[in-house]
Structures are given as C-alpha cells and as structure tokens.
Specification:
Blueprint lengths: L5 H11 L10 H23 L18 H22 L3 H28 L7 H22 L4 H11 L21 H24 L1
Helix pairs in contact: 1-2, 1-4, 2-4, 2-6, 3-4, 3-5, 3-7, 4-5, 5-6
Length: 210
C-alpha cells in the first residue's frame, strides 16, 4: 500500500480476478492499477486547469453546441453506465472494472480529452459557445466518471470529486450513474468509430515514414 496506494491494489485485484478462479499475486500486476490511477489524476488535473472561470450551475444547456465527439462521449458514458450496472448486478466485478477502465482510460482520456483541447485553448476562431460546450462536457463526464469509478477506487475519486463538485457532502452519498437510453446513439458511435479508424491509420502512416 505504501508503494502503490490502496486504490491501485484494490482496482488491480478486482480487474484481474474472475469468478471461480485463483490468481497468483504479483506486484507486476499492480503497476497496471497504479498507471491507471496516475492517468485519472493527470486528466483530472488537466480538466480542472481548463475549468477556471467555468460555473456548471450557470450553463444554459439549451445553448450548447454539441459536436460529434461530444455526442459520442455522452453516448459512451451512458452505454458504459448501463453495462457496469448489469455486470455489478451479476457480481461480475472484474468485467465491471474492465468496462469502467476501457471507458475512462480509452474513450475519455485518450480520445475525448485530446480532441476537446482544440476548443479549450485561446483561439479567435473558436466561439465562446464552443469552448463552454467542451468545458461542460469535460466537467460532466469527469464528474459522472468519478461516481462510476468510486466503488473500485474510493479514495482518489473522493479527493478529486471534492474539487469539482457542485454540491453534496461526499461522493459516497451521490447517486450511482443511471443510464439514459435516449442518449445512447449507435449511429453517432458508428460515425465516430470511422473517425477513430481514420486517425489511427494516419498515426500509423506517420510512424512508418518518420
């Protein structure tokens, strides 16, 4: 615990232990949990740095200008919330942990945050509404993602949540994310998967030709 942190160990054990199977303990395994914890810390720090002057309470959501990537991450969040609830109801703790991991580390950190950066930096071509939309989606997905991750990593999620919350005493008393089926849009997900494939192909070409 002193070396890796309680949350990293807790998450690693949940992630790697399937029902009815024994797992040989290895500190090498815990590096995955520690790396994931660091990823969440770093992305949370980035989001908070870009929320200066932002007040989620005062946002008029009817004026937000959602782009494809915004609709995609909102759809994926609701899809993941639904999946995690189903897995937890069946006591498939490892599958639930994997679902949260893939969403936060892959969808949110590696894709959404990277693409949202364009609208966050000072650029005269980016409208105030576009920047506010990116900030609102970043905040709402991070806040909801922390609630989703809380049963698996209780300490760090509480620490971060206290810094971005609107109200409430503790994340432990907040509602676990409830999926909204109306926000799960398969056509949006399919369209964004095309973008992901395109970007990945360009990255491969760039790497190959130096």
């Amino acid at each position: 615990i002193d070396e890796y942190g309680a949350d990293a160990i807790r998450f690693t054990m949940l992630y790697n232990t399937s029902q009815g199977q024994d797992v040989h303990f290895s500190e090498k395994l815990i590096e995955m949990g520690r790396n994931f914890a660091n990823k969440i810390w770093n992305v949370s720090r980035f989001v908070m740095m870009n929320l200066e002057g932002f007040d989620a309470k005062s946002v008029d959501t009817s004026k937000l200008q959602y782009e494809l990537v915004d609709k995609w991450i909102i759809s994926r969040f609701n899809e993941t919330s639904k999946d995690v609830r189903e897995k937890l109801d069946k006591f498939q703790l490892d599958e639930a942990a994997k679902s949260v991991y893939e969403f936060l580390r892959g969808d949110f950190c590696d894709w959404y945050v990277e693409l949202a950066k364009v609208r966050l930096y000072n650029n005269p071509e980016i409208s105030t509404e576009a920047r506010t939309t990116a900030q609102y989606v970043l905040w709402s997905i991070l806040e909801g993602g922390l609630r989703l991750l809380h049963p698996f990593m209780p300490f760090m999620t509480e620490e971060i949540w206290q810094k971005i919350k609107i109200d409430g005493e503790t994340i432990m008393l907040q509602e676990f994310p409830t999926p909204n089926d109306d926000l799960i849009q398969s056509d949006v997900v399919k369209s964004f998967e095309y973008v992901q494939g395109l970007v990945s192909s360009l990255r491969n070409i760039k790497a190959e030709v130096g």
